[in-house]
Amino acid sequence: MKKSNVTGWKDVFTFTLIQTLKSKAFVVSFVIFIILATVSMPVLSMIMNKDDAKVEDGTNPIQKVYINDKVTWSNGSFLPALNQENLKHIKFEALTEDYDTVVNRIEQEENTSVIVNIAETETTFQLDFIKASKGDVKESNVQTLSGALLEAFDAYRINQLGITPEQLSMIQANVSTSVTLADKTGNAVITEDTSISDSQYWFIYGILFVILMVNVMASSQIASSIVSDKSSKVLEYLLTSVKPLAIMIGKILAMLTAVILQFVATIVCVLISNTVTTKVFSTTGENMISEYLPTGIFDNVNPLNIILCIAVVILGMIFYATLAGLAGATASRIEEASESLTLFTFTNLIGAYIGMGAAGVLMASGTNGFVTFALLFPLSSPFLLPGAMFVGKVSVGLSILSIVFLVIFMILLFKFVAKVYETLILHNGSRIGLKELVKISKNV
User: Fold this and answer.
1) Angular region, 285: left φ>0, alpha ψ -120 to 50, beta rest
2) How far does Cα 29 stand from its chain's mean position?
3) Both 413 and 335 in a single domain?
4) Residue 252, domain member (yes or no)
5) What mean pLDDT comes out for the span 256-271?
6) For 267-287, what is the HEC assignment?
7) Does 378 lie in the same domain as 256?
8) What whole-number distance in Å separates Cα of residue 340 and Cα of residue 222?
């Protein structure tokens, strides 16, 4: 009985996966990923809570503030009393001494004091803060003070003008405008706002970036593995019992599995780190990840969306991995691997940039023809569709249609690869270019 072109791919898959998992490069990179994932949440918590801890502990080093009030209607009477816990200890004093004398004293001796110059123009008020160039008072301490002082000065102005709370509420009330389209009969035409927020855009971008990184890592390893096996004559041994197409399928799936294992293990470690950090470091008891992610970002996540997104991502990875395997087979030496991957990398970036552009359009104006094209185009759909679906901007029907297009493209690619791969995998001369690939496919 004649063997199928894919007979034996499981053996190649097992052999390649075991060799990859045992390789020093994989083990080192895996350990690095695990360490970074484990310490990510504690480090993030310490960075984000560093300034908050200072505020809670009342460690603002400013002790005195000299108010140099030059506003004509104020007559130098602005001397606030701040209620913020970390600023209550600060003493405010009107500047009555010579300005230069106080500046020199702050610079040389009294470096825990600050001068605030308050001036007015025809349209604005200006608050300038002067601190010592050296000492415990940092710019962040002055910024904390400036926010509280600006709020106190606004309240002082309102009080001086004799504006009542009711009048102030009316002055500060939001004024909004809207434009409504009408049909020929005069009825309003309701148009749905399909744009996304900044946080949703960055959520889509984050998923896109992770998928791009996995693609690049897996694909470079696939190409390097094929070139390495060609140069070391391992492929010649495999070809005695396995068809070339089965070798490619086995290698692609094995390398994808290895890279996905790395990222899954990394994500698991991040989640474990998040849980431990929440219990140990979080003062509010709130989940660390949810504390820094926008509220409601996962409202559209459901089992069906997850299944469709996983299908798109896996099909997209196999599609790009097949291109990488094809690129790797065109080279005969390790030195040529990076050059062979140039066209593949360019194709990968085209898909990613189309996805980024569509995400930007979604944020600016909502769904349109370009966004729909990016969601259906096989090069960009694996990057864009998962994030867009999770934020509720892709229907189930459009997701299924995108999967259908991706499958069609994969079938066409595999037919092309089946024609030229046997010639490529046995080739040991100079690197084969795109034109030569097309010629080979026509002659086979």
Assistant:
1) left
2) 21
3) yes
4) yes
5) 84
6) HHHHHHHHHHHHHHCCCCCCC
7) yes
8) 12
Q: Give residue for tokens 């390893």.
A: 221
Task: Please give the Cα distance from 179 to 187 (Å, whole number).
Answer: 13
Q: Which of 37-46, 249-258, 304-313, 401-410 has the lowest mean pLDDT?
A: 37-46
Enumerate long-range contacts of 412-418, CB under 8 Å, 24 or more apart.
413/319, 413/322, 413/323, 414/322, 416/441, 417/245, 417/248, 417/322, 417/325, 417/326, 418/5, 418/245
* Reported confidence tier of residue 4, pLDDT bands at 50, 70, 90: low
Q: Is the pLDDT of residue 160 over 50?
A: yes
Model confidence pTM above 0.90: no
Quickly state the pLDDT bin for 405 (edges 50, 70, 90): very high
How many domains, in total, are found in the chain?
Answer: 2
* Contact by Cβ (8 Å): 45, 288: yes
Place of tokens 């391992």: 234
Residue 186 has pLDDT above 90, yes or no: no
CATH number reported for the structural domain that contains residue 92 in this entry: 3.40.190
Query: Does residue 1 surpass a pLDDT of 50?
Result: no
Structural element, H or E, at residue 107: helix 99-108
Are 149 and 249 found together in one domain? no
Q: Is the pLDDT of residue 436 over 70?
A: no
Query: Could you list the residue range(s) of the whole structural domain that residue 351 is in?
Result: 195-443
Residues 276 and 392 placed together within one structural domain of the fold: yes
- Written as one letter, the residue type at 367 is T
Residue 241: which region, alpha, beta or left (left: phi > 0; alpha: psi -120 to 50)?
alpha
C-beta separation of 423 from 330 below 8 A: no
